[in-house]
Amino acid sequence: MSEGPEHEVERVSYWRSIDNRRKAGIAAGLAVAVLGVAGTLALSATRPPADERSEETSRTIIPAEETTETTITPPSYGEAPTNEADAPGAVAAPPSTATPGPARAPVVAYRRAGVLCIAAEDGTGERQLAASTAGVYSLSPDGGALAFVDAAAGTLIIVDTASGAGVAVGPATQDVPSWASDSTWLVYTAAGPKVTRVDRSGVGATALFPGSMPSVSAADGTVVGLGVSGDIVVYKGSISRLLAAGTVTGLATDGASVYYAVAVLPDGDVSVRVVGTDGGGARVLVPHPAATRVATFGDLLLSPGGTHLAYTERSDDGYSRMFVVPVAGGGATALTVRRDCYPVRWTADGAGLLFIEGNAIQGDPTALMRVAPGGGSRRLLSDGAGQ
């Protein structure tokens, strides 16, 4: 199917609007948090300064204006218990060090006709799990639990894929949840915004740091996220920060390095970059989009072995083109023909990418597809499956 007309957008105003929308979203979240803690201001005033409550270091990897972080009191999580030690700026307990569970399961989740479904990687054995007309979702590596954010209620829900039983965790934003490799816990963005950890059972929600866009390393449980001041936060039991000169639009980590997509104002230059979690070894992985239209990078997904990074070039109208690049460096491979693509999950063995093809926003038919990271070998798995 041929692609519709590409509408050029004036670059400076385009990136400024993206940046303004991000700031507006953060400001709205802060307003909600402030209203929620109005009754505890007197108590908060007696707390020691933030620099006495946590051990935190900053590592500047790219010249940027000095930034400060706003302290936010975490909101109530409703049905799921929270950690009482979750104070503003506090550093929570390190992620679980339990022995990793079984290998990644060869299953995939997707949405069909307003219902979240699970099936084998070849598209067979589809089962319906939960009603969901829109919103983000993420399947655990072992395939045993599906986390999704109900678009209407704004609530994170975790469903056991075997029984279909679900638990409502609490308020959450439309950031894709990210699972630990052993599938026993995940991180998501709670109201605030706060990057928050919760057990697979839905209990023990604990805010790690103020921020959004969380991602967990499959190697060692390192958590990265976008700080409220636009910095990159690295959480390894303690917090460190990497300052990026621009608007971060995507994050991924393997524990040793942080991969991030950035749009630099005012010229609108965008790229995918990598830097060590210690601030060293900064380099550009993808210098610019392949598209001739204005686009951002996003949807960063590291392969199970950590050797390749999948990403998309996208714009506000649902335009999305998928690529993969070796993390060691080299040219990117285009995995999209002439239809919009939205990555869902690497296959369990890392030999392929599962994705949704077709722009539902523009009324195109959609399907679950598979493609090899080297390009070619595209295969239809389930016609009608979508985001």
Tell me what the structure shows.
The protein has 387 residues and is mostly beta strands. It has one domain (11-95, 103-383): Methylamine Dehydrogenase, Chain H (7 Propeller), CATH 2.130.10. Helices cover 9% and strands 40% of the residues. It has 3 helices and 27 strands. The protein has helices spanning 11-36, 41-45, 50-53; strands at residues 56-60, 107-112, 115-120, 127-131, 137-139, 145-150, 155-160, 166-171, 178-179, 185-190, 194-199, 206-216, 223-227, 232-235, 239-243, 247-253, 257-264, 269-276, 283-286, 296-302, 308-314, 320-326, 333-334, 341-346, 353-357, 367-371, 379-383. The strands form 6 sheets. An 8-stranded mixed sheet has the order 1-15-14-13-12-11-10-9, with no helix packed on it. Strand 17 (257-264) and strand 18 (269-276) form a beta hairpin. The longest helix has 26 residues, at 11-36. The chain is globular.
Tell me the count of domains: 1
Q: How would you sum up the global shape? A: globular
Number of strand segments: 27
Q: Report the order of strands and helices.
A: HHHEEEEEEEEEEEEEEEEEEEEEEEEEEE
Class by SSE composition: mainly beta
CATH class: Mainly Beta
Average of pLDDT: 79
Q: What would CATH call the architecture?
A: 7 Propeller
Specify the biggest β-sheet.
8 strands, mixed
Instruction: State the helicity in percent bands.
Output: under 10%
